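Researcher: Good morning. I'm working through a list of sequences from a screen, and I'd like to move beyond sequence-only analysis. For each chain I'm collecting a predicted structure so we can compare shapes side by side. This is the next one on the list. No need for commentary yet; just the structure.
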Amino acid sequence: MTKRKINKVIIGSCFLLFLIVSIIYICRGNILRHIANQRIVHLEQRFGLDIVYTDLNLKGINTISLQGLIIVPENRDTLLTLQSLDVRISLWKILWGNVRVKNVKMDGLVMNFIKQDSIANYDFLFLPAHNPDATTPQEENTSSDYTHRTNTLLNLLFGLLPGNGELTNLSISERKDHNFVTFRIPKFRIDDHRFQSEISIIEDTLTQRWSTKGEINPSERRLNASIYAPNLTVPYIHRRFGAEVHFDSLTCSLSQESSNGANTRLVGQSEVHGLQLYHKRISPEVINLNHGKLDFHLNIAPQAVELDSTSLIQFNALAFHPYLKAEWQQNKEKKKTWHFTASVHKPWFESEELFSSLPKGLFENLEGIRTSGQLAYHFLLDVDFARLDSMKLESELREKDFRILSYGKTDLRKMSGEFEYTAYENGQPVRIFPIGPSWEHFTPLDSISPLLQMSVMQSEDGAFFYHQGFLPDAMREALIYDLQVRRFARGGSTISMQLVKNVFLNRNKNIARKLEEALIVWLIETERLTSKARMYEVYLNIVEWGPMIYGIQEAADFYFDKRPSQLNIEECIFLASIIPKPKHFKSSFTEDGKLKENQDGYFRLLTERLVKKEMISEAEAVQVKIENLHLKGKAKDYFNPIIEEE
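Model: Good morning. Structure tokens for this chain:
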């Protein structure tokens, strides 16, 4: 081929290419609208939507312009309206399959999420994805691949966040029946990846004004943002969860580090000042946290998410490194189950770091306490839901040269002497009486039948005189059972824990009470603030044994018309059996006041334990029968016919 012919071919090809590009450029608006309309039809059919717009076009070759967009779910309130939107994208990035928004101008975006009774205009957002072609194991694995899903989400996040832009007149509202919350942003401007804005929030009768600022850096895969306002109130939380959350400032940052093979690593920080939290299940009082901080290193694998132990949690003066891992694994039967691991190991640190950092409102009895010495803490929880019996639970707080310099709001030594005890019913005080000689029903430990003492101990806490307030194995077994029945059915409480709960704490069941209970038990037992004998004496004098029946003297009189020192074997075992359910003692009896046959197994068990403790002989054990128990006190009046005395 001659040089002239080659030149003609090149010129012709260039002209053809130019012609094709010119046609595409001239028809670019029609091509865009054709693609958009196809997608709109698909969305309308799939989700039952009515989507219309006034105009859709291309400005130049890389700016999409949209005017007058309206989205209305079928037979629902309008979900979204938009006056205008100009989006400038990176054409070069699109050619490589990577959407990157360079500049955005938006005006008049209004989104209304409305729910009336059980009907909402956003129900379609929660419809399950339907893809009949995704049936292969490989595609199913992809859907549960946390690395893939995380990277897809981050690519979308950093791809759509522009480096420059201006958003004006934004309004986002959520309304349910008569309650509502509205976010209004007059102007949100982004300059060279940095943004700053004011946000007005109206929730029912509350109006707030927040300030925000931050940085978006897609090239470095980094995002940080701050929100601040005096006593800022987090909206929607109270209505949805019954909680109240306030803070002065919140700063969050997130960056994605280079992936290592199939894994992704996220590094970030969250810091809050002036945090106030209230929820009745956490604490009956508002919890005040002056300063809290989380530095996290999150490793995401295809089937696991891990919070690395290099992460740091800090509240006030106390800081520690947590470790968490949740793994979605397959058992021998090829069923998927979770495996959770959590641990904290904090080596020796000054005790005041802990006690001066306790959030006000969370540990009422320990407010103001001062200590010296050092502490170390170790915690491990390993739960394989495929093999719950293999659970590991370890928790140990150790001390070195530890001393209580001064007590705070409550003197934790009060059980050592006479003190006033308040009994509660349904969270309300019903009786107040002293635990000591000034109470006519008080019974010293040496005046209580040794058989009763041992029966109660073997029923409630057989190792009471040997442990230091906690039985990790009992707590582990209780947690296993709770997970099996999927509710809090057992607590694994020792007598020490029951005693602290009743003497020092309110009866509200919440997380704060359990934490405070554990810390007070540790202080009393470790520092020997009250002797074991006195603690057991207090326990037997305050424990509830029936409707408004408190203490062993009232119990012995109510059931058997006896003194605590006169109780026989069957009577001691029976009293031990009803401590967990004192108000339901009648359920142990037939209508004519005889013990039910289903009580025989419990009587056999406790009898065997009394023999092993050499409290009774084998010969005496043979004579123990539920038929030997006869009610003689006022308790017999609860049954019909009235039981005749022997």
